[in-house]
Amino acid sequence: MKIFVISDIHGSSYFLKKVLEAYKRENANYILILGDELYHGPRNPLPVEYNPKEVAEILNTYKEKIIAVRGNCDSEVDQMLLQYPIMGDYTTLFLDDKRIFATHGHIYGEDNLPDMSQGDIFIYGHTHLPVAYEKNGIYILNPGSISLPKGGNKNSYGLFENGFFYIKDLDGEILKEINLK
């Protein structure tokens, strides 16, 4: 199974369309969205082609493939436009023999991990920085941001595939990878 991971769309229809091209190219089974779908937030600049209503319409066409969590910029009003649930602060998934704890990162983060076991995966967004490393037997992952990357990083997404997690730019170039075995 392939799980395509995105975070921090922040209402950019331009970058959402670009990343959905990558989703199709990757032939992934599901899309995991780590929050901040529609609103850009008061600390962020307006992203390219800021159009939250169009973003909601596009995402709704993938509703049966989306697993999502709430970001710090997501609200009940956003949920009214989206046809899949986004209001949970986290979700737990299982991939092969791994438990994945998926969250946005504004409540739980690298310095405030939930209770986890060796071999578990903690994946989050929020910082707009791509991250892939193992610490004390727990994998810490962040796909970066598709619309507003920080720290000089490229617009990026993540992909769980065949026991690896890849962080790729929108053209599919691998920026980081980690073996999850």
UniProtKB/TrEMBL annotation:
Family matches, as SUPFAM superfamilies: Metallo-dependent phosphatases
Q: Per UniProt, what is one GO molecular function of this protein?
A: hydrolase activity
Show where the Calcineurin-like phosphoesterase domain sits. 1-161
Q: Which cofactor does it need?
A: a divalent metal cation
Superkingdom is Bacteria
Enzyme Commission number = 3.1.4.-
Keywords, in A-Z order? Hydrolase, Metal-binding
Family, similarity comment? Belongs to the metallophosphoesterase superfamily. YfcE family.
Supply the name of the protein: Phosphoesterase
The species is: Candidatus Cetobacterium colombiensis
Taxonomic placement: Bacteria, Fusobacteriati, Fusobacteriota, Fusobacteriia, Fusobacteriales
